[in-house]
Every structure is written in structure tokens, then in C-alpha cells.
Design brief:
The complex is a heterodimer of chains A (552) and B (99). Chain A contains 21 helices and no strands. In chain A, α3 crosses α9 and α19 packs antiparallel against α21. Chain B has a two-stranded antiparallel sheet. The two termini of chain B are 15 Å apart. The chains are: A mainly alpha (552), B alpha+beta (99). Chains A and B meet through α5, α11 and α13 of A and α1, β2, β4 and α4 of B.
Chain lengths: 552, 99
């Protein structure tokens, strides 16, 4: 990708202003942090509106802002389906986990798993999984910040990774969860403004009749799109099980991704947890549908003007589009929005990594350490993690969204399953959870190493019986349709054939659902586990059949 | 047990609806593709890319293909409404649990 050839002064001013405001908010929010609970979960004092807005910016990372447009150019309808599932998955997170986790009063997902299953091993294993998925997520987002800086200054991406990474490390370390929350709320407003308006201007330039409302405003451009790119709207380019895999990865991935779940530990009560999700999903949907319009505009513009761009540079397309079709001021606005999107997500991830290392790992290995010392250690850990992640991100993935999609799959199969079953089925015990988590992790992490890291063809990986079906667009994503069902089946069967968990652990399930008393019959039937096993087997069977009916 | 069963059933039904609206909809569009698309003879220049026949969208709404419109609206407004209804019911249930 060729640099623009000059420093983009207006964009640079807005970006620096955004970074300064973020650090200022953290310094201001620091006054609220007096205890470990304040630092990690903002004293559980955040309201629904504030938390909902903070969740939006956490969800709308740079992968949404620039990665999704690149994915749409690559995957067309399939890419839109990925983000449609992602949008809806917040409601899945709410119905299956959010309010119940809030009532559990843990600090992190890892702490929840450890306390629900009374297992030190599961706590440590969950921390390891958290680190893997967080680093994958972070690498994608830091690369995005690098892309923005490259576009701004013409400097190599690596400088953006270092400067952006240092800024966010500074404000997360300073402000803790209060700083992160208020920053994310501010950044949500920035992101929505900075995405909606430039895209509207681009659509207007392309002749969209409904440019004032980008999510649905490009219908009059569809006939020409169907002429130049007839397959743009075809869902049947992929076997239907691909969409099932996307659904499983999104719904259980978001439950398994600790930085999303951590937001629910910060709200006042379960009711606030529920309504903050509704606010979040509405705004996330608004922004995502606007990005679908951006992707549509990018493909439309490329195919009607003959603009050629190498696949490796698709992540730059949003800025190229705005640069060519809107005034420079709008490009500066979009650049600032992209930086806000990147910073908010990186902040959330650093927060959970610091909490996981100090509260869950160190606290578990040295249980006698008091909260004051943990708080001091947390500042140091947060800073160290930030620096290490910057170093790791210096060799980022080619496409930023693919790394995040892998993170969703790994998180779903390893952490999402034990969280959901731990809330909804009392009979789930530590042996079942361990079996499901380990199997789920191996079935997603090893394919990521082979496909995502070493670049092997998906159909050639050593995944018995299923590997030969991993072809087609985003074919590797079908590994999720094996890993998550296997994780569910193993967790249920092993729990069934091993000792019943103690009553104190089963009582936690009643309490998470708001009951003050213990009733053995609640959340303990056979219908749920049997239904899950049947559905899991059906999904895996579906993956192996119907290929004569649906095109590759 | 009445409140417990209500919680389970409401959650199961709402989750099933959200799963279809936000997840399985695209699978259904593939399986029932003949309801959303027509199959036509491919224009001459496109035959090497698409073969002898190809799909064209059959139904539109707001000038967008019907299935695409359903995908983006259901996975946004649709699931938000389902989620809000679930929240209202859970709020009521919580009040009942407290009393």
C-alpha cells in the first residue's frame, strides 16, 4: 500500500485531541478508584445507559470500522451474515448469561468458572484461554491503529502500533475500570458520529437516494450492483452449515470473551445488566448496518470505476473511499472515529488481562495477599501487559478481522460452554467442565495454529473425519461447528457419569437466577441436556451432508 | 415452580426466535433459495464465471433484496424488540420473586 505522500494535518490534530481527551478522562476518573473492586469493576456502580454505551464501543472495534469493509469486499453476503450474527449475539449473551453473572458477584469470567466449579485448575486454565483470545483480539486491533497512523503520517504501521498502544496502556493503567468505562462511553459517541456522517457523504456522492439514512439508503444502487457483481447478494455461495457455524461462534464466543462479560460485573444489578444490553444491541446494529452500506459502497465503487486494489490492502478501503468521494474534513473525522474504535476495545482487553493475571492467577496462587497489595500490583501488571502486547503485535495478522473471528471460536468452545451450562444446568460439575473446556480449546486452538498462523489449507489439517468439509469461502469457520458441539456433548456426558456437585455449588445456580432458597428440581432436569446433545449431533451431521444440494 | 417454568419457557422461545433472526436466517435462505431467487440463463459474457444458469433476486423491499433486507433488519431491530420483550417479562418475574 502506497502512503498518501504527505502528513494529514487535520486528521493528525483530531487524533491527537482524541488521545489527549482519553488520557484526561482517565486522570479525572482516577479519583473514584479507592479499592480493588473500584479498579476492576468500577465499584459495581455503573448504570444501564452508561454501561450500554460503553459496551457499544467495546463491540465496535477497529475490526468493525475497517475490517468488516475488507471482509465484505472479500466475502460479500457471507461477511454481512457474520456481523448479523454478531449483532444478535448480544441478545443471546443477555438471555443466557449477563444478568446471572451479575448476580454471581465475580470480578471476571475466570473467577466465575473457578467459583461455580470450585476448581483451581479450571481457574488457571481459563486464565490461559483468556490470554490467548485477548492477544488474538488485541493483535488485530493494534494493527488497525497502525493502519490509521500509516494513512495519517505515511509512517510504517509499526509506529501506530507503538504510539496507539502506549496511549491506551497509559490511560487503562491510570484510570482502571472507571476510566475505561467513561472513556468507552465518550468513544461510542465519537464512533457513531464519525462513521455515520462520512458514510452518508460517500453514499450521496455515489448517488444513493436514501443517503441520509445509510443503513437502508442504497436500494436504488442495487440494480447496477446486480449487473456488475451478480453474486453480491447470494447466500448460497456457502453451504448452510457455514451460517450455523457463524451463529455458534458468535453466540457462544461473545459469552466466552471475558472482556465483554466483564462489563456486566460493573453494573448495579441484574436489571441494569439486561437493559444495558438492549441499548447496546440497538446502537451496535445501527453502526453495523451502516458498515454494510460502506462495504456495499466499496464494492460498487470498485466495480463501476475499475479501481484496483491488492487484497492485502482491503483494510485501507474505508479511508480510500472517503478520501476519493468526500471532503478531507470527513476523512479526518473518520480517522478519529477509527482511533476511538481501536482504543476502546484495546482498553477493555488490557483491563481483563490485568484482572485475569493479578486477581485470578496471582490471587489464586497466593491467596493470603490483601487487596491493597493486589491493587498496587494491578497497576504494574496492566502496564506490563500493555508493553508485552505492543511487542507481540509488531508482527500482526494479514487481515485484522480473521484474527478476531478465531478468537470468537476459541472463546466460545473453551469458555462460553462452561459458563452457559454452569448457569443453566446444576448437574454440570468440574470434571465435565474440564473435559469440555480442554476439548473445545484444542479443537479450535490447533486449527488456528495450523490455518491462521502457519497458513495451511483448511482441508489438509489433521481433524479426523471433518477436515475434508472445511472448503469454500471462510471454510475454516466450520471448525466451530465441530468444536462447540463437542464441548457441549463432553461437558454434559462427563458431568452425568461423575459425582453430583455439592449442594453449595448447586445453590449458586438458584441464586444466580434470583432465588433465595434451594430447590433441587430447578435447573436440574434432563430435557435441557438431552436437547443440547441432540442439537449438537444434528449440527455435526449437517456439516457432513447436503453437499450435492448446495454449491461449493 | 410456576415462575421458574415461565422463566425457562420465555427464555427458550425468545432465544429460538433470536437464533433464527440473527443466526439461522441465512441457512434458511440457502435451503429455500427458490423462494427468494429465480434461475435464469446466464448472459453470454458471464457464462465462464457463473455457468449456463445463474440466480437473480426475485423479491425486493425498499429496493433491497427481500432476504438481505430481512437479514439486516431482523438481526438488528428484530432481535432488539425480542430482547426488550424478554427484559420486560424478566423484570416482572423478578418483582414476583421478591414478593
Amino acid at each position: 500500500m502506497e502512503p498518501r505522500g504527505e502528513v494529514f494535518v487535520l486528521g493528525l490534530i483530531l487524533s491527537i485531541a482524541l488521545l489527549v481527551i482519553s488520557v484526561f478522562i482517565s486522570v479525572w476518573a482516577r479519583r473514584f478508584t479507592r479499592s480493588l473492586g473500584d479498579y476492576y469493576v468500577a465499584g459495581r456502580s455503573i448504570g444501564a445507559l452508561n454501561n450500554g454505551l460503553a459496551m457499544v464501543s467495546l463491540a465496535l472495534s477497529l475490526t468493525t470500522f475497517i475490517g468488516l469493509t475488507a471482509l465484505i469486499i472479500n466475502g460479500l453476503y457471507l461477511a454481512v451474515a457474520v456481523y448479523a450474527s454478531f449483532t444478535a449475539s448480544f441478545i443471546g449473551l443477555m438471555m443466557l448469561a449477563a444478568p446471572y453473572l451479575r448476580r454471581h458477584k465475580s470480578y471476571t469470567t475466570m473467577a466465575f468458572i473457578a467459583e461455580r466449579y470450585d476448581s483451581k485448575f479450571l481457574r488457571i486454565f481459563a486464565v490461559i484461554v483468556m490470554l490467548v483470545v485477548s492477544v488474538l483480539y488485541l493483535a488485530g486491533n493494534l494493527k488497525g491503529i497502525g493502519i490509521v497512523f500509516y494513512y495519517l503520517l505515511g509512517v510504517p504501521e509499526v509506529w501506530g502500533i507503538i504510539v496507539g498502544g502506549l496511549a491506551v496502556t497509559l490511560y487503562v493503567t491510570l484510570g482502571g475500570m472507571y476510566g475505561v468505562t467513561y472513556n468507552q462511553t465518550f468513544q461510542t459517541i465519537v464512533i457513531i458520529f464519525c462513521l455515520m456522517f462520512p458514510v452518508a457523504v460517500v453514499l450521496k456522492a455515489l448517488g444513493a437516494a436514501g443517503w441520509a439514512f445509510p443503513p437502508l439508503g442504497y436500494g436504488n444502487m442495487v440494480p447496477l450492483m446486480e449487473t456488475v457483481t451478480p453474486h453480491y447478494f447470494w447466500p448460497m455461495l456457502a453451504h448452510p452449515v457455514t451460517y450455523v457455524a457463524i451463529f455458534l461462534g458468535s453466540f457462544f464466543g461473545i459469552i466466552g470473551l471475558p472482556h465483554f462479560v466483564m462489563r456486566f460485573f460493573t453494573v448495579r444489578d441484574a436489571r441494569e445488566a439486561r437493559w444495558s444490553t438492549i441499548i447496546c444491541v440497538f446502537l451496535v446494529g445501527l453502526v453495523n448496518t451502516t458498515v454494510y452500506a460502506t462495504g456495499f459502497a466499496a464494492v460498487y465503487w470498485m466495480n463501476t470505476t475499475g479501481f484496483d486494489l491488492s487484497a492485502a490492502a482491503y483494510d485501507y478501503m474505508v479511508f480510500i473511499l472517503i478520501d476519493n468521494l468526500a471532503a478531507q474534513g470527513w476523512l479526518a473525522v473518520a480517522v478519529a472515529g477509527a482511533i476511538a474504535a481501536g482504543l476502546s476495545t484495546v482498553a477493555g482487553l488490557l483491563m481483563i488481562m490485568g484482572a485475569g493475571l493479578i486477581h485470578d492467577l496471582y490471587g489464586s496462587l497466593k491467596p493470603g495477599v490483601d487487596d491493597e497489595k493486589k491493587l498496587k500490583l494491578s497497576y504494574a501488571a496492566m502496564f506490563t501487559v500493555g508493553i508485552l502486547v505492543i511487542l507481540f503485535s509488531l508482527n500482526p495478522p494479514t487481515f485484522i478481522l480473521e484474527a478476531i473471528m478465531w478468537a470468537f471460536g476459541i472463546a466460545g468452545a473453551s469458555l462460553g460452554v462452561p459458563v452457559v451450562l454452569g448457569i443453566w444446568w446444576k448437574r454440570t460439575n468440574k470434571y465435565g467442565a474440564a473435559a469440555g473446556m480442554i476439548a473445545g480449546f484444542l479443537l479450535t486452538f490447533i486449527p488456528w495454529i495450523l490455518i491462521g498462523y502457519l497458513g495451511m489449507e483448511p482441508v489438509q489439517i489433521p481433524l479426523p473425519f471433518f477436515a475434508k468439509y472445511l472448503y469454500g469461502p471462510l471454510g475454516w469457520i466450520k471448525t466451530t461447528a465441530v468444536a462447540i458441539p463437542v464441548s457441549f456433548i463432553l461437558t454434559i456426558l462427563v458431568s452425568w457419569f461423575t459425582p453430583v456437585p455439592p449442594e453449595a455449588l448447586q445453590l449458586q445456580v438458584d441464586q444466580m437466577h434470583g432465588w433465595t432458597d434451594y430447590n433441587e428440581k430447578r435447573y436440574n432436569g434432563k430435557v435441557l441436556p438431552v436437547t443440547i446433545i441432540v442439537l449438537a449431533v444434528l449440527v455435526m451431521w449437517f456439516m457432513t451432508t447436503g453437499y450435492e444440494l448446495f454449491p461449493k | 415452580m410456576k415462575a421458574y417454568k415461565l422463566e425457562i419457557w420465555v427464555t427458550a422461545v425468545c432465544l429460538a426466535l433470536v437464533s433464527v433472526a440473527g443466526g439461522f436466517a441465512s441457512s434458511l435462505f440457502v435451503i429455500f433459495r427458490n423462494s427468494f431467487f429465480n434461475r435464469i440463463a446466464t448472459p453470454g459474457a458471464l457464462v465462464p464465471v457463473y455457468g449456463e444458469t445463474m440466480y437473480v433476486v426475485d423479491k425486493y423491499i425498499l429496493c433491497l433484496p427481500l432476504h438481505y433486507f430481512l437479514l439486516i433488519v431482523l438481526s438488528w431491530i428484530g432481535v432488539t424488540l425480542i430482547g426488550a420483550i424478554w427484559c420486560l417479562i424478566m423484570d416482572k418475574l423478578e418483582e414476583r420473586q421478591r414478593t
